Amino acid sequence: MLEIIVRIALLCCSLSMLGLIYRVIKGPSTADRVIALDSIGVNLVAITALFSIVHKSTAFLDIILLIGILAFIGTVAFAKYLERGEIIENEPNR
Amino acid sequence: MSYLLLAIVSPLLLAIFIPFFHKWFGRVHTGWFVLPLPILLFAYFLSYLPETMSQKRVMETFEWIPSLGMNFTAKVDGLGLLFALLITGIGALVILYSIYYLAKDKEKLNTFYVYLLLFMGAMLGVVLSDNLIVMYAFWELTSFSSFLLIGYWYERERSRYGAQKSMLITVFGGLAMLGGIILLYVMTGTFSMTEIIGTSDEIFNHPLFVPALVCILLGAFTKSAQFPFYIWLPDAMEAPTPVSAYLHSATMVKAGIYLVARFTPVFGESSVWFWLVGGVGLLTLIWGSMFAVKQTDLKAILAFSTVSQLGLIMSLLGVGAAALHFEALDDNIYTVAVTAAIFHLINHATFKGSLFMAAGIVDHETGTRDIRKLGGLMQFMPITFTISAIGAFSMAGLPPFNGFLSKEMFFTAMVQVREMNIFNLETWGILFPVLAWVASIFTFVYSMILVFKTFTGKYQPEKLDQKPHEAPVGMLISPVILAALVVIFGLFPNLLSGTLISPAMSAVLPDLLGAGEEFDVHISFWHGPNIELFMTIGVILLGFFLFKTYPKWGKIYGKLPQKLSLNRFYDGLIEKAQTGSNRLTNSYMTGSIRSYLVYIFTFFIFILSAALIRENAFKLDTSNVSSIGIYEMVLVLFIVVGSISILFVKSRMTSIILLGSVGYTVSLFYVLFRAPDLALTQLVIETISVALFLVCFYHLPKYRKLETRMRFRLTNALISIGVGAIVTIIALSAHSNKLFDSISQYYVENTYVEAAGKNMVNVILVDFRGFDTLFEITVLAIASLGIYGMIRLKSDRGKQG
């Protein structure tokens, strides 16, 4: 029973992944792509978690945390880049 | 090290001290310090005469590289001794002459005598070495020292040109000779000349026989200025005259003659040898004599005459080798060619040396060597005139000088060629005496031009830089000695026959002698009214007529097309080689990374597919392939879609993002294939590199930020598809050809037991195979330092500028 549900869930994640990738390619604006990437990150979290169930393993839980952090940092960096044109700003007195 | 070996290298040893002598005893002409050595050596080598006359030979060995069969073995036999005496004897005379010829305060005497001694030692090494590799080493040393001597006045452009030309040609021949020596080693398994001669019957039918023969002959022909390699010799006349007299008439150019004579017992029986040596010699003889007539420079006449006379000796050696076909010595009349060759070798060294020295005196005392400016010098320089006349008449083959005798014997040998019933000589043999006769006529003409245009006729003081007068006594000693030898050998030729010629002949034709026998060489001055005598009379009559009418027919030379000359060909070859290689290099070294990548990948595809096809290695075996699940297929779909769309997107930003998503999908693969550590690292690294890409993207210059799609290029497409296909095929074949089981079972069993860890990947990284990790850390350190350096250095430069 669990196995079937996991499979259905994975399928759904894949479908949404496809849609997100379509959005990444298509755009039209950079912000759309960044949002799509962020969602891909979340999707990856879901997929990794589902795989952990499939593999019956706890070795992948670190990855879930890492994806969460990276997706957050990446999106923040992108957002800052889009707004300021720079990610790490120089100190004003230099 | 025995005295003999020490004698051979003694010039090289003395050369070390010459600069000190020059520096410490600057008031004495450095040549005086050099002079005793060749005299001593000459006397020392004379002491070997009794041994060689009794057909013995002396061998001394100094072990150099015994494991490779390369030992410094000196062998003194008739041929080697003859050359050693020539080298040291004429060397002494030339050094004496050079003491008076080269001014003490104007010339760089230290370098001159160092080069000359290097040459002398090298030449002695060539003629007295029994080991072929050692002989080759000395051979190259003669080429180098000759190069240095020709370029002695290096500030002159012509000197540098002549030096380079002689270097290129003789070193080309020297390398060919090295090839021949190696082929001989392959055939016989030894570098020793004596042993090679002992096995000459075996190598005669060896498939490498002809290549070895041709290679050795290339060396001999380039060194001895045979057709078509003679062209360096006239240009080598830019050297100081003592050098021309020593190297380019008496010794170095005879190294090739020596080589041919030395190898006659090995190769002589083949018809290839006969036709190459004899034919090329004869061609050189007539070619050189015809061109000598045309020259207006004294030394150029002498250079071409040297070429022609060397051709004469070479053709005699070629014809003489045919004597090896007839086993018995009795009534083997063909050995006379070898006798003539050796006799003329000595004669040529004497008269050509004296002629060069006389030409040097004329140059020294009048300031020019151009025969159009010279004339009527007989009254000013009677002694020089006498020397020149003796030398030139001997060269022309007039009695009572030694040239007459050797020319008679030359005709004898050439006439006898017709009687040989081998090598198709019945039909073509007639060419030999005819060509020889015609060449002798030309020889007569240029010899007469040489003497009479210089010393008789109208005196033209207005064309001369200085008032001519007789040379100092010291300068005249050497040519007078040589000219006296010309006369003495002419009148008493049998002085030489028993002492030098007969032992040398037994070295050239060893098989013909039985035990205790020796060649009975008897040179008679008058041998009755035979065909040779009439040929000589014909030469004199026709030559005299041609000399008188030279102004009328000499113009023909002007009509000969310049383009056909071999110098033009050589210069064109050098020019073509330079422009050609330049063009070739420019054609593929475009400076564009794209084309280099095209070469690399094309080569990659070509070599791998060729290897696959050659070894028939493609194999597809699916027996141990696991089944493909739905997840893998989906992930593959993602990666394929992501990668392919990178190629087609317009914006760079999009391609960076797509690349990132491909990277993330790869990390999903790691998850799927149960590699959590890899997935972790992959995610972090992918994020960082995408960020770095974005930094790069951001800093692109504004005007280059053209957002265009990648252009389609057929070559690129074909190459990338090809690379992908070949790698896939190789991966499939490699998987299907698995020969051994994996060794991973060991790690599975021992990770906890031996290394006290449960994470196997990490235990491998830091414990089982920690060395790799260490150096990966180093790589990262280097990369980060490099980046830091690049950024800092650039910003510092920005501050300065």
Provide keyphrases for this structure.
heterodimer; A: 94 residues; mainly alpha; 3 helices; B: 801 residues; two-stranded antiparallel sheet; 2% strand; elongated
Could you walk me through the main structural features you see in this protein, from its secondary elements to its overall organization?
The complex is a heterodimer of chains A (94) and B (801). Chain A is flat and about 60 Å long. Helices cover 80% and strands 0% of the residues of chain A. The mean pLDDT of chain A is 83. Chain A is mostly helical and 94 residues long. Chain A contains 3 helices and no strands. By secondary structure, chain B is mainly alpha-helical. Chain B has helices spanning 3-24, 31-34, 36-46, 49-53, 78-101, 109-128, 132-150, 157-188, 193-198, 200-203, 209-223, 232-235, 241-250, 255-267, 271-294, 298-321, 336-366, 382-396, 402-417, 425-428, 431-455, 473-491, 494-508, 531-548, 550-553, 556-559, 566-588, 593-615, 630-648, 652-672, 676-698, 714-736, 744-755, 760-768, 770-800; strands at residues 58-65, 70-76. In chain B, strands 1-2 form a two-stranded antiparallel sheet. The longest helix of chain B has 32 residues, at 157-188. Chain B is elongated, with a radius of gyration of 38 Å. Chain A binds chain B through residues 10, 14, 17-18, 21, 24-25, 27, 30, 33, 37, 40-41, 44, 47-48, 51, 55, 57, 59-60, 62-63, 66-67, 70, 73-74, 77, 81, 85-87, and chain B through 631, 634, 638, 641-642, 645, 649, 653-654, 657-658, 660-661, 664, 667-668, 671-672, 674, 676, 679-680, 683-684, 687, 690-691, 694-695, 698.
